[in-house]
Amino acid sequence: MELPERFQDHSAAEVAVISGTATFDLALKICNSMRLPITRTRVGQFSDGEIAVQIKENVRGRNVFIIQSICGDANRSLMELVLLTDAARRSSAREIVAVAPYLGYSRQDRRPRSDRVPISAKVIADMLGVAGISRLVSIDIHSEQIQGFYRVPVDNLYASPVMVADISRRNRAGANLTIVSPDVGGVPRARAFATELDVDLAIIDKRRPAANVAKVMHVIGDVKGRDCILVDDIVDTAGSLSAAAGALRENGAATVRAYCTHPVLSGDALNRIENSALDELVVSSTIPLHKDAAKCSKIRSLDISELLAEALMRIISQASVSSLFIE
């Protein structure tokens, strides 16, 4: 198998794509887009529960891409990524690129005031650095400043082109759309969507009294009679999202949909979504939907593999990755 024609200067023999168990189906789709076979590995565990990995093909002198979101059983998926990286380094790989479409632990990115807590995102960066990665590729990192925790290049890709394209396909020209940020922190992301679609922007003002608990205060902007689209990077317990959808309905929104990159969907998230004012939740394939989530009539997943494949091929050919997001 060969790389696509415009990357012919780089033989497939120079590249190896490895996958952990967390996002194996996504890795297969990326390999199909790149016209590359997936490198054979063994990922399991010993009888005491310790992770066991083995790369079953020669990767000496090759550029190795290890595809693994830190999701689901986050601790297991993280250890798989770390151990696969170490195995590739000890097998004399030339470059090791960690491709973590969802970078778990990113929400723990600072030490608030005097709380005795870790900065977990920095710990993960140190672990991957010691293991031997030479580059990190991720999508919609929760806090862009996390890139500074790494001593290697970080490519923070955006799911917005895939999501904006989906919104455009499903809404007629001149539709009565309003993009909504679920909080003040998400305004830059929402503004980028609104600018690309040339529609209005609204903001939800909320207070968060405790972790995973959000109280919506009021809506900034006119949403009465509008088709509202909430945009965010992560949907976890869906408490904030459900409350935001309810607030929009109370303020007269005609429809409420949400586009969130990473479907963590923990705890009672599915029940909240099913019973919420949301008409639809659209997510990406950075995290595979578990069986119950895949059955939920309100949830739809967009394939992100082509975007990732294009970014990886640009890395292979040393072309610009940032130009993917510049018109």
Number of helices: 9
Query: How much beta, percentage-wise?
Result: 25-35%
Strand order of the largest sheet: 10-9-8-11-12-13-14
Q: What string gives the helices and strands in order?
A: EHEEEHEHEEHEHEEEHEHEHEH
N- and C-termini, Cα separation: 32 Å
Rg (CA only): 20 Å
Number of strands: 14
Helix share bin:
25-40%
Average pLDDT rating:
91
Indicate the multimeric state.
single chain
Q: Which segments are poorly predicted (pLDDT under 50) over 5 or more consecutive residues?
A: none
Sum up the overall morphology in one term: globular
Major beta sheet summary: 7 strands, mixed
Structural classification: alpha/beta
Q: Helices and strands in order, then pairings?
A:
Layout: E1 15-19, H1 24-34, E2 41-45, E3 51-55, E4 63-67, H2 74-90, E5 95-100, H3 120-131, E6 135-139, E7 154-157, H4 160-170, E8 177-181, H5 187-197, E9 200-210, E10 213-220, E11 227-235, H6 239-250, E12 255-263, H7 269-274, E13 280-284, H8 291-295, E14 299-302, H9 305-316
Parallel strand pairs: 1-4, 4-5, 5-6, 6-7, 8-9, 8-11, 11-12, 12-13, 13-14
Antiparallel strand pairs: 2-3, 9-10
Helix pairs in contact: 1-9
Key phrases:
single chain, 327 residues, alpha/beta, 7-stranded mixed β-sheet, 5-stranded parallel β-sheet, 9 helices
